[in-house]
User: Fold this.
Amino acid sequence: MTEHRRSLWFMLSIYIGGLIFGVGLAVSGMTRPEVVLDFLQFEDFGLLFVMGGAAAVTGITFTIATQFFDQAPLTTTKYTRRVRELDRNVVIGGSIFGVGWGISGICPGAAYASVGIGNYPILWAVLGMFLGAYAQGYWRTLRSRSTEDATETTAS
Amino acid sequence: MTELASLLVVGELFPRGVLPYLLGGLLVGVGAAVIYLATGIIAGASTFLESTLSYVSAVPRFNRSRYTQSRNWRLLFTAGIISGAAVYAVLFQTGGWTTEIQWWRLLGGGVLVGIGTRLGKGCTSGHGVCGVGSLSNTSFVNVATFLAVAVGTAQLVQAMGVSP
Assistant:
């Protein structure tokens, strides 16, 4: 992901992809925190089909692209899978996210889509997510400065 | 669609039916696939939070090149998500809808979501959809963790009588 030519086609693909993504979140009801909380309270297991259906499509897409094609036409970026290093933060972060998701019933993508359906109280959640993202970024910057923790400074 | 959905009600496990969930999930996957096939980018929704902060904050973490180089298209990705949901609402939603969930749950939960998704390297779209689709062990661990903790938290909140 070095220097993309930010061509019209690049920006158009991002926007159209986002548009379909947003329609999907609205169709699935993930824009409504109540639906997510119903899942977490074992009253409606539909969310499994949302995550499963989406992961099936991306899984097939990633497999075909990495097996049969070399690089993306608009950026010449090589097709890869999503791989992140497994460390303590993956579990700690997942736990903190889980508490937040369980309290509010919202996650980032669904919150943006919820703004789109006119659910204005969700702006509280969007504000909260920015505050939380800022807090962890501020704290991690301080920490990596004071301890020169190699795992923090080299994390990409 | 509601008529179709009501035909597909499967017992008490799926009181709203299965079809809207499956169709919505497939569309979410197609949206991510469009971006991936065209650009090679595996887009997650939560990185937007940090990359957008780089416009207004001097904190070095937000101003790493991977955020400053991607912040413009991430803004557009989020604009796409918002407008896609808006298109759906205009076409299929009768009247306005707003959540009953109390504001402090949204704000407080949101703060934890902001911290946790960034610390944990992804959210429901990055790990849950793209990471699981990549058969990434890291993502399986993250998803299992946040699902289990969220179920426990939501049931505890319900048991404490907090509603909505």
